[in-house]
């Protein structure tokens, strides 16, 4: 589940271990004693700005932070870690109580669980009451229930999973969602087209449906046209993208789009395809694929075996070959 992967991720970050967390290396900064000026040395003050001398055997906040940021340090994060991971580790140095136990739920804005074999998005995710970005790419998620998603979400990335049904996700989804990533899944049209409207995604700005199995261009566009805030759309890799008038029809049908399949839509292109949306008869439900073979080795040339002299009564032997392609 996502919750199990989340706790394992926190354990890997080592928020309670040196140089983070509370320990002998920083205990005097977080005790309840009164400092010489009469103030409390607790979490109310920025420990990085406290000017008292560092006791023997302890480390200053600057030194601890350097151990986190120096790429040669044994405590440095791996290069592929997210900015949120680095932020949590810095908090664990400057204010460790903020990321201790369940307190971390209140500070986490982004969660990235990639390639961890997650199959279930469970209700434990609701504890992250401030979560705005959820990245769950390259897992094994087939269904996702909106009831288990924080309502504060603005970004939901599910690329490279096995999602085939959007019904549970749309019952109803987080209302403020701005990006929905569903590329490289198993979505098919027209059964899933009906869930791609403003009735479910009123604030959607970016939508990735690339490399699924959508085939009905007219039906899909009729649903997407209700997304008034949509500016970025990815549909490449679907069978409908093979239709000759695919890009032109989309550009003219969705005038608010700024980027289609990672290519900016300029004024000249929009003018070039003007009026195409009013000619649906040009959309043919078929596509032609041309395969050119540059060179074949190890196969005898049939023509050299069939050159017979004129008037020859010898039997004719015909050679033929079958080449199969899997798309």
Automatic annotation (TrEMBL):
Alphabetical UniProt keywords:
Leucine-rich repeat, Repeat
Q: Which GO terms describe its cellular component?
A: cytoplasm
Protein's UniProt keywords contain Repeat: yes
Extract the SUPFAM superfamilies matched here.
Answer: Outer arm dynein light chain 1
The organism's superkingdom is given as Eukaryota
Name-wise, this protein is: LRC43 protein
Write the gene name: Lrrc43
